[in-house]
Amino acid sequence: MKTKIVILDFDGTLGDSQTLITRTMRATLKQLGLPERTTEECAKTIGLPLKQCFKVLQPMTEEKAEACDVLFHKLFMENNVPGAVPAFPGVIKTIKQLHNKGLIVTIASSRVHHSLAAFVEELHLEPYISFILGADDVEKAKPNAEPVLKTLHHFGLQPAEALVVGDTAFDILMGRNAGTKTCGVTYGNGSKEDLQAALADYIIDEFAEIEQCLE
Predict the structure, then answer these.
(1) Can you spell out the DSSP letters for 80-140?
(2) Residue 4: is its pLDDT beyond 80?
(3) What is the pTM (predicted TM-score) of this model?
(4) Pathway, per UniProt (predicted)?
């Protein structure tokens, strides 16, 4: 079935946010007196809901995870100056091309909705992104299928008409759980091996190559 909608992850797929996120994670752990974690350890959790990220880094109670969540957002807002999260090469041009070809382009991310909307505005992509769905818009975040299924329901489309694109196994599993085609990008936070293990239908090294994955 022909692809009608492309559902994109944000962090590590559209925006190069790894440095900002991992630095903020490490600062959060330090300020709360929790064991330090390396940049690499923090990067491997990107893609999960934020509280789950901290639980993976350090076993903790829900109360402590909530404290991490609150402090992270405070520090993130302080550090998130204009230009702190640039788009990866080819992202803006390719999204415009997809839109101009009649494809619906959306975002489904573990980031909260208002943060996604702010980045879309900063990158001047509002005319080309038809729907934004953040972690606070669903009950079950990725790798659960809910973000994809909720997006498809909004447009009255079927899983076979969708391509889910992301940089981690969490994104690929979300798409597979929903029954869509999936595409992994190798330039983000995950590895090619992780994407292969998650059974991505396509794996690309540059965002512009996404057009080769459309049926």
Answers:
(1) --TTSSPBPTTHHHHHHHHHHTT-EEEEE-SS-HHHHHHHHHHTT-TTT--EEE-GGG-SS
(2) yes
(3) 0.88
(4) Organic acid metabolism; glycolate biosynthesis; glycolate from 2-phosphoglycolate: step 1/1
